[in-house]
Design brief:
Layout: E1 2-8, E2 15-19, E3 28-33, E4 36-42, E5 48-55, E6 60-66, E7 75-80, E8 84-91, E9 96-104, E10 119-122, E11 128-134, E12 137-142, E13 159-162, E14 167-174, E15 182-188, E16 195-201, E17 220-222, E18 231-234, E19 259-262, E20 266-270, E21 277-281, E22 288-293, E23 298-303, E24 307-316, E25 319-330, E26 336-341, E27 344-348, E28 354-359, E29 373-379, E30 385-392, E31 410-416, E32 423-440, E33 448-452, E34 463-467, E35 472-478, E36 481-485, E37 497-502, E38 508-512, E39 516-519, E40 526-530, E41 538-543, E42 547-552, E43 556-561, E44 567-573, E45 580-584, E46 592-597, E47 602-607, E48 613-618, E49 628-634, E50 645-650, E51 654-660, E52 667-674, E53 681-686, E54 692-697, E55 702-707, E56 710-716, E57 721-727, E58 735-740, E59 744-761, E60 765-772, E61 777-788, E62 791-802, E63 808-814, E64 822-837, E65 843-855, H1 858-864, E66 868-875, E67 881-889, E68 893-899, E69 902-907, E70 910-920, E71 923-933, E72 938-944, E73 947-952, E74 957-963, E75 972-978, E76 985-992, E77 995-1000, E78 1004-1009, H2 1017-1021, ...
Parallel strand pairs: 1-83, 32-56
Antiparallel strand pairs: 1-82, 2-3, 3-4, 4-5, 6-7, 7-8, 8-9, 10-11, 11-12, 12-13, 14-15, 15-16, 16-17, 18-19, 19-20, 20-21, 22-23, 23-24, 24-25, 26-27, 27-28, 28-29, 30-31, 31-32, 32-59, 33-34, 34-35, 35-36, 37-38, 38-39, 39-40, 41-42, 42-43, 43-44, 45-46, 46-47, 47-48, 49-50, 50-51, 51-52, ...
Protein name: DNA damage-binding protein 1
Subcellular location: Nucleus
GO molecular function, one term: DNA binding
């Protein structure tokens, strides 16, 4: 049985609309992301803030604004991909969206989908609704004033009207002064025929629906349009505009109130009344994908390259005399654009980040507009996920690890977006740091920050000491007042502070390079002072209430007794070359200190009364003489279950952890995690109950905390942090002060983990990714699009990207071949035998990347009979990829996989097993061992042992077994099982022995098992569907993971899924003991939990494709629904748990465990 839960929700924006949904005086922005409706409002800074995000049981396919007569606010019309339509209104009493009307179209099985995506049009008067769903059909309805007996504003039934225009590219209402709305169709006259424009009246004089007969009802028909015309823009009339149509005039004039046909190379304006036409040829042809009106005469147009243009209608009075197009600048490729007012526009994107931009449209000189675009806000979008790799930052060394991905530093690196919007995205589950405010701006090179209390009577931190390279600055907090002071007690302000802290009895400690000083509460502040020996400076220091451990110039270690007025109780002069790297005096254990050494790479536990070594641990790892740079001891887990933990940040980015015995002070249980390529700074954040968290600031900041008896690492969103400290003030309780390279801000830590996205813009499509742990780099196959002299050129490259900073390493390999442009289809990282022999006279295994390609130029490929290649790449000492060998193919290579050192390639119609022998460093031989003919086109491969699962484009999956050749007999691929249903597969992976997870382009997921115990041969060859569900989003890639379940686990994670809409899901199998309770819990929640629009959960998640449709999901539990249990009120939770068995508290704990397991 299967369990599916979202890790990252859909981020692609395909639909957006502005309307007065919440209030009659305030407009809001509604976005559709997959199955979620998001409501955003504008801030004073012209940015957007999200008010709510609601799931509905359906993938949203349209949004529209409906304003019934007499209604002060707008209603929201929503359509789904299952042809369900709902009208929603905002209820101020419940502060929620409520259903006003719903419809279900039952005719869709007998019709063909429209050429463009589903479309909902509201005529300019707000009286009529037209849906364009199927070819040759308009689905129409009227908007009425709601009555007391009927809350809906539409007629009970939609009217389907047949039209003769089949291949419709665009549809729009025109502006008219009559009660008979005009509608225009941009259509293709036959397949590959001429592109034409036709206009009709939607209703006749008696307001009866038009029959759209071309001879009787068509008012205008215009040809000679741009062959690639794609959009229609209706132009409103001037207020009070009067039209005088002169019959038989020698020259007809075009007036406002017509429509503009948007093409690639020319625009055409049609005055629908005078039939006058005006054309405008574009100086630089381009492909437009979206538009929005700025005002009645200016329109913002976005093209597929991310360019923004403004089109202006030139007029003399009401007469149209021409058009003009000005290029403004670049943004993300727009899917939808919305005018938010005041020159602010929302750019919703599917292939890039959505943005809020400001354009100064008030300028009269249009040439200046190219400098006037300002990006106000960016919303992360990882759609479409073309490929991804799973990487565990903590699992790349030889240290002890309890489980794969157990370090908490696992992340998914995705290839997202397309072309100019292409990027690498790092998606991690972590803890967010919410900024509460900036305390100080324009502070450069902050070295450290310390939170103190000004007096012994203070209950809160009210003093902040900021250490800079040449000075110290002090800020005081009094209620809501924050003030910088020039002096405080006798603190040294003209030098860097290495350490500042409170001591008992109101004393205060400050350590600088020149001295250690204790100041009292006054009136005589000076209490004690110690200075290092001559010609020595203090390089590091640490203290608790009893002792201070000081390193002078890294060669002298001194222990000072605080209670005896900084009496020097012990000193240790080290040998030259073995300087002190770091020191730490813990608060949890008195009388001891920790010291890290440069040369020996050891950490020692010292007795602070005499500086004798109690225990030493060598930190040097295999082939790496790493140096300890920072040490802290913290009680992360409760004392009943564990002692304190020592954290050692190493020079190369590794953090080592040890358990410390309080009695013997020995170190044990060494473990490690990698947080970057440079050492981390460790900051202790105290918690209640005597426990602490540790914040590590580095390339990948992490919060280290205890949970469920183990230490967890969570990514934190403070990438620019250089230092931090806990700050429990009266105004900001339990907060954290974070220092960056430019400012000082105060933040609070989220209480739960969320997914966080880090972006590296590439400016080209990252089509495939493969991770090499040996090279600590990603091999990425990129496709770049360039426009040269109006023609589009495609260039493929193979590049290495460093796994931490995402910076490019080495030089990219550019694919250039005599067969024309080459497209990277797949990449695989593996180890193959090299031509070099090792000490055991065996071929050494070396890191290799295997790439499959296809050629785009059909004429050249037909002429040379080469349509693709398999290439093997190596990485040289300078980390440049180099070609070892390539093999020409008669068809494109769609996928590659490894099987016991052999290359398995999915070609256009066949699956081939190759043996590759590397004859020299830059040459090799491919030998074909076996082939298998697929039903249509192989799409994906999953290999386990000698079993290959072949996902077919139309015929689901076939299980093929490789049988090696014997003697003179060649090897062969034998089909041992198959799923015979029609299933347009997109991805497949093995999730267990004889079990596979498969996805299709309709958004379905199925689990297929081999029936190896079937009574007949036919039964054993026919695969069984053991689970199925409709995800509502096309899965592009599935990656298997291997995780051992904990003893009390309910599910076992098996795979991650990446989708077209930017979602990432975790697929798990449910252990037998939990199957019944989870299925019954899902049944209860689907019955009782309210959802927007009251749509049916079972129908939403039921399997559906062109051949088969079910009424509910089969043996699949929807984790998104289950996890909503935690958000319900206690009364509803009790209702759901009635008859379930477990108590409300048990179910709550169960769901929390399920959520944590992700």
């Amino acid at each position: 049985m299967s369990y599916l839960a979202p890790i990252h929700r859909p981020s692609s924006v395909r639909y957006a609309i502005k309307l007065c949904l919440l209030d009659a005086e305030q407009e809001c922005l509604v976005l559709a992301k997959g199955n979620r409706i998001e409501i955003w409002t504008q801030t004073e800074e012209d940015g957007l803030v999200m008010l709510s995000s609601k799931p509905i049981y359906g993938r949203i396919s349209m949004l529209a604004k409906v304003r019934p007569e007499g209604s002060p606010t707008d209603m929201l019309f929503v359509g789904t991909s299952r042809f369900q339509y709902i009208v929603l209104a905002y209820n101020k009493d419940t502060n929620d969206l409520e259903l006003r009307q719903s419809f279900q179209d039952v005719q869709e099985r007998h019709m063909r989908d429209s050429q463009s995506r589903d479309l909902c049009l509201i005529d300019p008067t707000g009286k009529y609704v037209v849906l364009e769903l199927f070819e040759g059909i308009l689905t129409c309805n009227r908007i009425f004033k709601p009555r007391r007996t009927r809350t809906g504003c539409l007629e009970e039934k939609f009217e389907s009207i047949r039209i003769s225009e089949i291949n419709v590219r665009a549809t729009t209402f025109l502006y008219t002064e009559t009660k008979q709305p005009k509608i225009a169709f941009l259509y293709e006259d036959g397949i590959g025929g001429e592109v034409r424009l036709a206009t009709y009246r939607l209703v006749d004089e008696k307001l009866v629906w038009s029959r759209f007969e071309t001879s009787r009802h068509r008012e205008n028909e215009v040809g000679d349009l741009d062959e690639s015309a794609s959009h229609l823009i209706p132009i409103p009339k001037n207020a009070g505009q009067k039209r005088y149509i002169v019959r038989n005039a020698a020259i007809t004039k075009a007036h406002l109130g017509g429509v503009v046909v948007i093409g690639e190379s020319k625009f055409t304006y049609l005055d629908d009344e005078s039939k006058a036409i005006i054309e405008y040829s574009l100086p630089n042809p381009t492909i437009f994908v979206s538009w929005v009106a700025c005002d009645d005469l200016r329109y913002l147009l976005g093209d597929m390259y991310g360019n923004l243009h403004i089109m202006t209608i030139s007029c003399q009075d009401a007469e149209v005399i021409g058009m003009e197009l000005i290029h403004l600048g670049k943004t993300s490729k727009p899917e939808v654009m919305v005018d938010m007012g005041g020159g602010v526009f929302f750019i919703g994107s599917h292939e890039g980040d959505s943005q809020v931009v400001k354009i100064d449209t008030s300028l009269t000189d249009l040439e200046d507009l190219q400098w006037s675009i300002e990006i106000l806000q960016t919303m992360d979008n990882i759609a479409p996920v073309l490929d991804f790799e799973i990487m565990d930052l903590g699992g790349r060394n030889d240290e002890t690890q309890s489980n794969e991905y157990s370090t908490g530093q696992a992340r998914l690196v995705t290839g997202s977006g397309a072309f100019e919007n292409g990027s690498l995205r790092s998606v991690r589950s972590g803890v967010g740091l919410k900024d509460l405010g900036v305390l100080v701006d324009d502070l450069q090179d902050i070295q450290d920050v310390f939170a103190l209390r000004s007096t012994a009577q203070s209950d809160f931190d009210d003093l902040l000491v900021v250490s800079l390279p040449t000075e110290t600055r002090v800020f005081t907090f009094d209620g809501q007042e924050i003030e910088e002071v020039d002096s405080f007690r006798n603190l040294q302000m003209d030098c860097q502070t290495l350490l500042a802290m409170n001591l008992p009895d109101g004393m205060m400690l400050q350590v600088t390079e020149a001295s250690v000083a204790i100041s009292g509460p006054g009136p005589s502040y000076g209490a004690a002072e110690w200075k290092p020996p001559q010609e020595k400076t203090i390089t590091s220091a640490s203290a608790n209430d009893g002792h201070i451990l000081v390193s002078a110039s890294g060669t002298v270690l001194v222990s000072l007794d605080v209670k005896q007025g900084l009496k020097e109780v012990a000193a240790w002069t080290l040998e030259q070359g073995n300087e002190i790297a770091c020191v730490h005096v813990p608060s949890a254990i008195s009388g001891i200190g920790f010291v890290g050494f440069w040369k020996s790479g050891t950490v020692s536990v010292l007795n602070l009364s005499n500086l004798e070594v109690i225990f030493s641990e060598n930190l040097t790892r295999k082939n790496n003489a790493s140096i300890p740079r920072h040490i802290v001891l913290a009680q992360i887990l409760p004392e009943k279950s564990s002692g304190p933990t020592l954290f050692v940040a190493m020079e190369d980015g590794v953090v080592l952890t040890f358990s410390v015995d309080k009695s013997s002070h020995s170190l044990s249980g060494r473990k490690s995690i990698i947080l970057g390529t440079q050492h981390a700074q460790l900051h202790i954040l105290p918690r209640k109950g005597g426990l602490s968290n540790v914040l590590a600031t580095c390339e990948h900041p992490s919060l280290i905390y205890g949970s469920e008896g183990r230490i967890n690492y969570a990514a934190v969103t403070v990438e620019d942090a250089t230092s931090a400290c806990s700050f429990n003030s009266e105004l900001f309780p339990d907060s954290v002060v974070v220092a960056t390279s430019t400012n000082l801000k105060i933040s609070e830590i989220d209480t739960e983990r969320r997914t966080h996205v880090r972006t590296l813009p590439m400016g080209r499509t990252v089509r495939r990714i493969a991770y090499s742990p040996a090279e600590r780099a990603f091999g990425i196959g990129c496709i770049e699009r360039q426009l040269r002299k109006g023609e589009e050129e495609v260039i493929s490259t193979f590049t290495l990207v460093e796994d931490m900073s995402f910076g490019q390493v080495g030089q990219p390999y550019v694919f250039e071949d005599s067969n024309g442009p080459e497209l990277i289809e797949c990449i695989l990282r593996t180890q193959l035998p090299s031509s070099r022999l090792g000490n055991d006279a065996q071929q050494e295994l070396v890191e290799r990347f295997v790439i499959g390609t296809s050629f785009l130029d059909e004429e050249l490929s037909q002429e040379n009979n080469v349509k693709g290649r398999i290439l093997v790449f190596g990485i040289d000492d300078n980390r440049n990829p180099f070609l070892v060998s390539s093999h020409n193919l008669k068809s494109a290579c769609r996928r590659v996989a490894m099987m016991d050192g052999k290359i398995v390639a999915a070609l256009t119609k066949t699956v081939v097993v190759f043996e590759f022998n590397e004859t020299s460093e830059k040459s090799g031989e491919f030998t074909k061992l076996a082939t298998f003919r697929s039903a249509t086109v192989p799409i994906d491969l999953s290999v386990s042992g000698n079993i290959i699962a072949v996902a077919d484009m139309m015929q689901s999956v076939a299980i093929v077994e490789y049988v090696p050749g014997k003697g003179a007999l060649p090897g062969k691929l034998v089909q041992v099982a198959k799923d015979y249903q029609a299933f347009w597969a997109t991805a497949v992976t093995e999730i267990g022995e004889n079990s596979w997870l498969e996805a299709d382009h309709d958004g379905n997921l199925i689990v297929l098992d081999r029936n190896i115990d079937g009574p007949t041969l036919e039964d054993r060859k026919r695969m069984q569907v053991t689970s199925e569900l409709n995800l509502g989003d096309q899965v592009n890639v599935i990656r298997r993971i291997n995780i051992e379940p904990s003893p009390n686990a309910m599910i076992v994670p098996k795979a991650f899924l990446g989708t077209t809409e930017g979602s990432i899901y975790l697929y798990s199998t449910i252990l037998p003991a939990s199957q019944d309770v989870l299925m019954r819990l899902q049944e209860q929640m689907a019955r009782h939990v309210p959802t927007v629009g009251d749509l049916d959960f079972k129908l939403y998640r039921s399997f559906k494709n062109a051949e088969r449709e079910t009424s509910e999901p089969f043996r699949f539990v929807d984790g998104e629904l289950i996890e909503r249990f935690l958000d319900l009120d206690i009364e509803l939770q009790e209702t759901i748990c009635q008859g379930l068995g477990p108590s409300v508290e048990d179910v709550r704990n169960m769901v929390e465990e399920l959520k944590k397991s992700q």
